Amino acid sequence: MDSITQAALGASVAAVVAGRHCKPKTLLAGAALGTLPDLDVLISYGDPISDTVKHRGFSHSLFVLLPFSLLFTALWYRFRLTVLSFSRLWFLIAACLITHPLLDSFTTYGTQLFWPLDVSVAISSIFIIDPLYTLPLLVMLTASLMWREKMAKLCGIGLLMSSLYLVWSVAAYSIINQRVHDEVKDTPLANKPIFISPTPFNTVLWRIIILDDNKYYEGFSSLLDSKKNGNYPMQWAQRERGYWQLEQTSEHVNDLVKFSSNFIQYQIIDDQLVVTDLRLGLIEYLPFRFVVAKRSPQKDWQLVTPIKIEERKVKPKHLPALWLRLLGNQDVNADLCHINECPNLTVTKK
User: Is 214 within 8 Å of 184 (Cβ atoms)?
Assistant: First the structure.
């Protein structure tokens, strides 16, 4: 999640744990602890693909944060005055640190909660920025600064509201997941790899990707869609997924394939091989795109150090289309998915 959300979460958690001992400086300490795991963005791993796949690694691991919180508590307890007991201070620090990666694990990007074990957790039920999650925390934090005698209670209310929204996001994901499986049942796409994620800033409109060899299908489903003939029909855009062009393998691309669970697209653009993580973004606004090889005039491919491609700017025409699609209007699918070589189609039953 974004830094503002993580700071608000850390401050709220610190207030609840501190209880009647909570003060404004407790909120500041909690906010700092809540953003601390993301300092790994300052570490360069040598290339943009490595920076992408190794972010949220050791600094988000429960196996690192728990002993670190104990060490940090011991140092704080020794050199700083505090009214909290050692165990309560440790619980405050540990809770502020650990809730950060736990929240991140609900996003599409995923989190290596159990680093150094090669396991990534990505529930993909909430977008990396969602105002409906963050606003309750911010509102109650603001209120707690105005009514300081109720600081812990007010922050607890904000934390409860945001947590309930997170639970709702998982329920919404389950609803869409069931709809997608009902849609592709008895079609050529049955049993194909499926990825589902919320669109930006909400948990009502969801984006679905289905892999099918060298093609993939992209569609949208809204919780506000109307039911027709006992089911929620979806429209799909079929796109080329491409394939790896070189005889030799690339360690960087292998890492990205693993990181994305193989939801990858390969494109040749101006004699450059571009690899894209299909999970992050929507339509043609896919931010994790990398040049990984270049073709010489003799048509030979050469691996290069990965180069991240600049993100495309969102076209204004797509914003109202997304809003209308969220409201259940399927007539705007053509506006959302229009790319000349990728016509809309309906998945046909076997």
Answer: no
**Alpha-carbon span 336 to 221, nearest angstrom:** 12
Q: pLDDT tens digit string along 192-236?
A: 999 999 999 999 999 999 999 899 999 999 999 998 877 888 888
CA distances, 302 to each of 50, 189, 274 (Å): 19, 35, 13
148-159 confidence digits (pLDDT tens): 999 999 999 999
User: Would you list the DSSP string of 293-340?
Assistant: EEE-TTS-EEEEEEEEPPPPPPPTTHHHHHHHHHTT-GGGHHHHH-BT
User: Are the CB atoms for 212 and 188 separated by under 8 Å?
Assistant: yes
Give the separation between CA 136 and CA 146, rounded to whole angstroms.
Answer: 16
CA–CA dist 64, 195 (Å, integer): 30
Q: What is the 3-state secondary structure (H, E, C) of 16-35?
A: HHHHHHCCHHHHHHHHHHHH
CA distance 40 to 50: 12
Distance CA 40, CA 256 (A): 19
> Please, what is the Cα angle at 274 between 299 and 127, to 5 degrees?
175
Determine the Cα–Cα distance for residues 246 and 255; give it in Å rounded to an integer: 16
Please give the Cα distance from 51 to 55 (Å, whole number): 6
Task: Identify the helix (H) or strand (E) that includes residue 6.
Answer: helix 3-18
Q: Report CA dihedral (262, 263, 269, 273) to the nearest 10 degrees.
A: -10
Alpha-carbon gap, residue 221 to 205, rounded angstroms:
6
